[in-house]
What we know:
The structure is a homodimer. Chain A has helices at residues 13-16, 24-34, 49-59, 80-87, 96-108, 115-118, 156-174, 193-199, 201-205, 233-250, 263-273, 288-293, 312-317, 323-329, 334-348, 395-416, and strands at residues 5-11, 38-45, 65-69, 92-94, 122-124, 128-130, 139-144, 147-152, 180-189, 211-218, 221-230, 255-257, 278-282, 303-308, 352-358, 373-379, 384-390. Chain A is α/β, with parallel strands linked by helices.
Amino acid sequence: xxxxxxxxxxxxxxxxxxxxxxxxxxxxxxxxxxxxxxxxxxxxxxxxxxxxxxxxxxxxxxxxxxxxxxxxxxxxxxxxxxxxxxxxxxxxxxxxxxxxxxxxxxxxxxxxxxxxxxxxxxxxxxxxxxxxxxxxxxxxxxxxxxxxxxxxxxxxxxxxxxxxxxxxxxxxxxxxxxxxxxxxxxxxxxxxxxxxxxxxxxxxxxxxxxxxxxxxxxxxxxxxxxxxxxxxxxxxxxxxxxxxxxxxxxxxxxxxxxxxxxxxxxxxxxxxxxxxxxxxxxxxxxxxxxxxxxxxxxxxxxxxxxxxxxxxxxxxxxxxxxxxxxxxxxxxxxxxxxxxxxxxxxxxxxxxxxxxxxxxxxxxxxxxxxxxxxxxxxxxxxxxxxxxxxxxxxxxxxxxxxxxxxxxxxxxxxxxxxx
Amino acid sequence: xxxxxxxxxxxxxxxxxxxxxxxxxxxxxxxxxxxxxxxxxxxxxxxxxxxxxxxxxxxxxxxxxxxxxxxxxxxxxxxxxxxxxxxxxxxxxxxxxxxxxxxxxxxxxxxxxxxxxxxxxxxxxxxxxxxxxxxxxxxxxxxxxxxxxxxxxxxxxxxxxxxxxxxxxxxxxxxxxxxxxxxxxxxxxxxxxxxxxxxxxxxxxxxxxxxxxxxxxxxxxxxxxxxxxxxxxxxxxxxxxxxxxxxxxxxxxxxxxxxxxxxxxxxxxxxxxxxxxxxxxxxxxxxxxxxxxxxxxxxxxxxxxxxxxxxxxxxxxxxxxxxxxxxxxxxxxxxxxxxxxxxxxxxxxxxxxxxxxxxxxxxxxxxxxxxxxxxxxxxxxxxxxxxxxxxxxxxxxxxxxxxxxxxxxxxxxxxxxxx
Lengths: 419, 419
């Protein structure tokens, strides 16, 4: 395992008081991983000179690449640039290309240019500038003792722009790996981590030392991930996929996909592939399932509409569900989930309809069902699939879980009935 | 600044290949901050003995408290417990209380008990067990050289359960701070970071050394955060709030709230306080705004329903918008956003209606508007507020931004017309 080693350092007091969640690190890790570059560690530190200097000192002992994000804004709390300039023994000079770019941005946005924005065109004279097409703060690349240190803005799309356009191609060229790194995934649904592990323990213990198995649990779902290191990429792929197939065969009832994709992408792709349209009726999940499906590119090919019938009267007024049916069964019931699925299909004339109704937390609801009760139904013109679940988490986690189960049920409906 | 110092170490290979986003750290940081405990650093490492040991060695040089999460599951890739046991010189013994608890969980879930689950009842004999009411892996607290080291599961609600029930009260008692730490926030909307900074620069430079100002930018929004350290808490609060009020007065047109809450919470609370009901019609945002509002506890008090009219025909069939009006103006137009707002209000007879239509990415749409065009409208029975925006990000970021603007527009509508 002599892969190139990288460390990610995220800079910003807001990370240490929990005011923002760091999503940059996961994205960077995924991209480097594809190139066979291992992430050793991720470190989050505050906007202080001491923290930045000591993190650079410490991490450069082990890493070939250090990627820093954050602290490059135009305001006084952003100190990364002068600290790096001093650390690498340079001085700040105006970069004409950056200056022109910053001026252009302000002209295009019809905003006056401020002195502090002009300052963003200053860069250490010991760095290579990485252009930031999507913002005003340039990236900076330093080389020292055979190591590469890059500073990028913390704004996610600006950072991603720089990585995609400049850094990833550069790393790919420079750090040609003698070792390959291969990941293969199995997304399973409906079986706990321990039970999966028990069913596959003989396969797991037969894995060679250079192939590792990890369990990535989420509510109701576990992703099994095989990671293999080796020299002969083709042989490694074959061997890893053989193990994957053996694992999948052992837990076949629970396998959803080999794709390293989210459940909403898998469901979206299945709908697209089978040329199916869908309309959803969501109650307790409040539009979250529809939001997830519309995160997918090209969702308009299958998603026609959704109704978030949060109040009981919305089920009557928008979905045309019989008020007597609601009175008879209660609004949180299998009958109403099925009525929602059928009605949502009918109102938009889609191939598939979907309904979910439940109680995710203590509420002033009149319904008698216990907290955590959720009914989910999927229907087409001939068939209905429905099921009751009982969730045990808090409100937010119950919503997340119900949405995952819902996406799984849609997947299951389509694959079971081969529609 | 002699506050107690804490470090968070998150353990798991999945963090280093970017397969999961760490949300635990932000939550932990927020909770400790309330107690006046500063987070020095956050470190993410893989499931390896060397990484865990070297992180413990390194971080215990500076921290009084080290909180570890992850690697306590029942499968072979989870090695945190034996590594900690060896590190602190203990041996694993069965804890009878944990064993009873684990057995209870399996009985309640009607699942057979596996050998590997029994193993979860083993704990190092040199630790204090922290009960995990919501799962099978117990927490472990070690003390060494006046420092506290705690290992918790990575599953968010299990970790939160332990922190809330046991650790936070313990820390509060043990680390009575001689210094207080005070945060005061101003959420602003519609003005860029540089322009805000320019308007308040004299106030910023007049801040005493023990009060820091940070800018936390998000698309269209910037949160200004004052952080003050000092001995006399009441005097510190008064002084910090005076500075906050001076800053707010300077940028009054852009101030939304002093609450350290998300925009959806602020809007939800405003609706609740004014006893207003709302129905939304979302097109390009695909249910995301409704999802955000239903993250709030008690959302059913104001949210009656929403229609995600993703396809053009959904605007006709569910929202009853005149097809000729769509033909005349195009589906991405101010007229249609207003029609959506008015129709959503009418179909559910709510106080407020809302509409958003736009193009967030290149799509097979027939519409002539350029990518990034979004029209947003809010209406009650007498008034309408509508506006066109032009967003410049990618699909996901445009959706996020449109949702933020939408929530802001609802806030602005209610506060402007004092309804």
